[in-house]
């Protein structure tokens, strides 16, 4: 019995080995000495060898490399997509291309906030002398800079780049007025009507927000086509009926909202600015340059730069100078006849073909009715 138990115990304590062609990892398991001594036997180490085949290791390594490559490709794709979506404004379209699009095709794309461009045309102003009417005059700002104190020390005030805080509703459009081309090549434009103002708010690098009313009201500009300028009216950002948080206004509300200050304090002027609301208009200047024209359709495009004051909070603050740069476009219609159909060349051709087809259908219906009337007496008798 003892001999059999000893042989059995020795069998369990023999080294066990799971072998492969190229062992790479060895795990040593030692038998419990207490168990061996309990049976009166010397403890001998048992060894268990486990290995992973080299082919399997290569496969795992290749899978790991493939996963890294896939992750890198995915990250690169994300960067490309984000860069493509952050490219900025959409492609600028011509007038006919804009008119051919539906509301849903334009909605949310930013196209409605853009001035049209010209396909072809001349790089110079090629209109003959005469009197024209400027229709659909469009001013699209592309840059807003505000003159303010520099962020760095000991630096003079300068025009600083800003961040737009309002939505894409700052373009002026549908402006019209007489446009005259003189025999010496000079031009003259006078603004009379249209969407000629837009409330805009921008933010300076320091965090200060500057509201202003982008406008070209009552603009009268004259000069050469490559550089004609003029002045315009800048109305108050707030109207006379606007009430401040304390109920004070220009034409309504309280006259003042503070007690009478003691004499000699020196702040009577500041309090007066807050109490007495000032809605007087200011004056701005603009310079325009025509860069391209197409006399056969009456289209003209160019660039502009305007300088105007910002909001004064109804006279309580000192206005800042706001410089606005952008592109402009218009359609010049001759006083003797329109240079261009309002609907556009392609659309007018389509409408004309449709009208012709409808007219022919009406003629066929009329002929059919006449034939029926002619055969009616024979049917009665």
From TrEMBL:
<dbReference type="InterPro" id="IPR011250">
    <property type="entry name" value="OMP/PagP_B-barrel"/>
</dbReference>
<keyword id="KW-1133">Transmembrane helix</keyword>
<keyword id="KW-0472">Membrane</keyword>
<comment type="similarity">
    <text>Belongs to the PsbO family.</text>
</comment>
<dbReference type="GO" id="GO:0010205">
    <property type="term" value="P:photoinhibition"/>
</dbReference>
<dbReference type="GO" id="GO:0009654">
    <property type="term" value="C:photosystem II oxygen evolving complex"/>
</dbReference>
<dbReference type="GO" id="GO:0010207">
    <property type="term" value="P:photosystem II assembly"/>
</dbReference>
<dbReference type="InterPro" id="IPR002628">
    <property type="entry name" value="PsbO"/>
</dbReference>
<dbReference type="Pfam" id="PF01716">
    <property type="entry name" value="MSP"/>
</dbReference>
<dbReference type="GO" id="GO:0030095">
    <property type="term" value="C:chloroplast photosystem II"/>
</dbReference>
<keyword id="KW-0604">Photosystem II</keyword>
<keyword id="KW-0812">Transmembrane</keyword>
<protein>
    <recommendedName>
        <fullName>33 kDa subunit of oxygen evolving system of photosystem II</fullName>
    </recommendedName>
</protein>
<keyword id="KW-0793">Thylakoid</keyword>
<dbReference type="GO" id="GO:0042549">
    <property type="term" value="P:photosystem II stabilization"/>
</dbReference>
<dbReference type="GO" id="GO:0010242">
    <property type="term" value="F:oxygen evolving activity"/>
</dbReference>
<dbReference type="GO" id="GO:0008266">
    <property type="term" value="F:poly(U) RNA binding"/>
</dbReference>
<keyword id="KW-0464">Manganese</keyword>
<keyword id="KW-0602">Photosynthesis</keyword>
<feature type="transmembrane region" description="Helical">
    <location>
        <begin position="351"/>
        <end position="374"/>
    </location>
</feature>
